[in-house]
What we know:
There is one protein chain. By secondary structure, the protein is α/β, with parallel strands linked by helices. The chain has one domain: ABC-type transport auxiliary lipoprotein component (Rossmann fold, 3-Layer(aba) Sandwich). Helices cover 30% and strands 34% of the residues. The chain has three helices and eight strands; from the N terminus they run αββββαββββα. The strands form two sheets. The chain has a five-stranded mixed beta sheet, with helices on one face. It has a three-stranded mixed beta sheet with strand order 1-4-3, covered by helices on one side. It is elongated. The protein starts with a helix and ends with a helix. The model is unreliable at 6-16 (pLDDT under 50).
Amino acid sequence: MRLARAVACVALLALAACGSPPKERYYTLTPAASAPAPAAGGSAISVAVGPVTLPEVIDQPQMVVQVAANQVAIYEFQRWASPLKSEIARVIAANLAQELGTARVWTYAQTTLANPDYQVLVDIQRFDSVVGEAVTIDALWSIRRATGGAPRTGRSSVRETVSGTGFEALVAAHSRALARVSQDIAGAIRAP
């Protein structure tokens, strides 16, 4: 009887060891590649991007994907490489540097400027992901000028088709959508 139990335990342990757990995959958003990096002698304006706020449902390390009108799925093994708020701020900052032709753009958390010329606050209202279909970003943003005056505010609502079926294609679509949000913000900064 003991021998049978011991054999059964060893068999269960061997079976458990055969099935390897799924491997975690980490994803990062990327800035637009449409423009060259700003030259050192470019624009002299300085911009701090952030803070960025997100709905709590997506403010987590795992990928959150819309599976029905009122249902999401959280993918435990598909994760953001860094906090999503930081990813969004970093990409918008890089995009603004390209759009505005200045190297003096930082995320708010990393800013080394005491008083940047502009501070961009971003409130992400929607960051929807549908694998193999589309992503939607709805962002409210506000631009504060160091010299005073009323802040400029705007809303960017972007839907971007996903070119592929996996998570990499989904993240690439979010990166393209954030490039369009960044264009809207850059236009407001450039406006007289």
